[in-house]
Structure formats: structure tokens, C-alpha cells
Design goal:
Pathway: Lipid metabolism; Phospholipid metabolism. With about 240 residues, this protein is an alpha/beta fold. It has 8 helices and 7 strands; from the N terminus they run H-H-E-H-E-H-E-E-H-E-H-H-E-H-E. The chain binds S-adenosylmethionine.
Length: about 240
């Protein structure tokens, strides 16, 4: 029997899904749009939004570029909210529930795959291997991912990992080594210089009908965590090719 990839235990991800946070990555939607401008995207470009959340980026790609987009997310609440967005806006974006560590999709399907703050929540080598398999030769991969500026003390590392549900806190070199090991070429880092603390763009919300009261505190905890560890927590935008 196929092994199902479990959802990582993360109070932060529970909060994001119940509040239906769109643009849940450093820089938010504005940074997404800026980065996409640097890619060759046109009508018919096949794109996978890996860990699409409520589908904000996937919808934008379909409506602005007329790209052929698939969004995948492991969380059923996110999937439902992303589907509602596509229906409401009459967009032909296919949303599937699944894990980017193993997807029931043919290899070599996509011109571009995006991962906006998703790899930190998964088994990174497995997800990157799967992303590599799904890309066409020459296809592009862009990831906006949490990166630490220096390895923190163990207790700080544990506090961050427990709150977010991360299994590791990579520095820039760790990400590059991993991408190289999988076989990605032409690895570049977007020259974004705004620190994570100043890069908290206003997100969008699609609230669930019932929200556990303890989740209201989680958003504050997230901002406190970023403020407290602003010298450690950072992010990088990596782009590379298969
Ligand atoms: C920080 S949110 C980012 C969502 C979206 N990319 C955005 O920027 O708004 C992380 C997303 O990754 C999803 N996720 C976590 N593990 C996943 C997995 N194994 N496969 C697919 N999606 C996953 C979560 O459900 C969540 O929607």
C-alpha cells in the first residue's frame, strides 16, 4: 500500500489555514509579482504552485498570464479555500490535495514550479527530488524560503522549530548544497535586501466559520518570534533550472 505523507504538526499552519491567510510568505503578494516578472511566462506556460495555500499566486498566474496552473496543498482547509477562489473568479486552475513530497502527476510536466514558504514544512530532499522530476528539462524552479543568517543556540533553534513545525533551520549554503545535490543548475539568489522584519506585507484573510480561540494568539506569537529573532530569521529567493 502507498504510504500517505502526514501533515506536519504545526500550530502555525493551523492558524494560517483557519484564518485563510493568502500571501503567507515573506514579502507577500507584492514580492511574488515582482519575482514573476523576471520569468518568461506566457499563455499556456505550465506552472505548479507547490503548497499553494489559499491559491492567491495560482489565481494571479492564471488571470494575468493565462498560464496553465495546478495548485497543490496538503491541507484540506487550504484546498477548499483555493477551490472556492478559483470558482468565484471563474479561473481554470486545478487544485489538488496532496503532498509535494509525492504527487500523482507525470514527470516532465511543468515549465515552472513555485514554492513560497513551503519547503521548510516538508522533507526537503524528498520534495526537491519530486519537484525536479515534475519539471521539464530546462524548466525553472523558484523558492522563497526561510533561511537563517547563523545557526542559533540549540534552545532557540528548538523554540523556532517547535512553533513552526520545521525539521531544520538551513543557512543559505545548506539550501544551495541541497539544490546542487538534487541536480538543479544555474542556481541564483534574488537580490532582495529587505529584512524579514520590514517585509511583512499585509496578507489577505479567508476566515473559517469556526476558529479555535487559541489560534488568535498564534498570529501574535508569529510576529513576536520574528521580532525577537530578527537577527537570525531571514529568507532567500532561489531560482534555478533543471
Ligand atoms: C506558509 S504556507 C504558504 C502558502 C502559500 N504558498 C502562500 O505563500 O500563501 C505553507 C503551505 O504549505 C502547505 N504544505 C505543508 N506541507 C505540505 C506538503 N507536504 N505538501 C503540500 N503542501 C504542504 C501548507 O498546508 C500551507 O498551505
Amino acid at each position: 500500500m502507498e504510504k500517505v505523507v502526514p501533515i506536519r504538526d504545526s500550530i502555525y499552519l493551523d492558524f494560517l489555514s483557519k484564518f485563510g491567510v493568502g500571501g503567507a510568505h515573506p514579502g507577500g503578494f507584492e514580492l511574488t509579482k515582482e519575482i514573476l516578472q523576471g520569468e518568461r511566462i506566457h499563455a499556456g506556460t505550465r506552472i505548479l504552485d507547490a503548497g499553494c495555500g489559499t491559491g492567491q499566486t495560482a489565481a494571479y498566474l492564471a488571470s494575468t498570464y493565462e498560464a496553465r496552473v495546478i495548485g497543490v496543498d496538503i491541507n484540506p482547509i487550504m484546498v477548499e479555500k483555493a477551490k472556492q477562489r478559483m470558482e468565484k473568479n471563474n479561473l481554470p486552475v486545478k487544485i489538488i490535495q496532496g503532498s509535494i513530497e509525492k504527487l500523482p502527476l507525470k514527470g516532465g510536466m511543468f515549465d515552472l514550479i513555485l514554492s513560497e514558504s513551503v519547503l521548510s514544512f516538508v522533507n526537503k530532499p524528498r520534495a526537491l527530488q519530486e519537484i525536479y522530476r515534475l519539471l521539464k528539462p530546462g524548466g525553472r524552479f523558484i523558492a522563497n524560503e526561510l533561511t537563517v543568517n547563523k545557526k542559533p543556540e540549540e534552545w532557540v533553534e528548538n523554540e523556532i522549530k517547535t512553533f513552526y513545525g520545521f525539521d531544520s533551520l538551513p543557512v543559505e549554503r545548506d539550501w544551495i548544497s541541497l539544490l546542487e545535490r538534487i541536480g538543479f543548475k544555474n542556481i541564483k539568489i534574488h537580490s532582495q535586501t529587505t529584512p524579514i522584519l520590514q517585509h511583512q506585507a499585509t496578507p489577505e484573510f479567508h476566515y473559517s466559520a469556526h476558529i479555535d480561540p487559541k489560534l488568535y494568539a498564534v498570529m501574535n506569537q508569529h510576529f513576536q518570534m520574528i521580532a525577537k529573532y530578527h537577527e537570525i530569521l531571514d529568507y532567500r529567493i532561489f531560482s534555478c533550472s533543471k
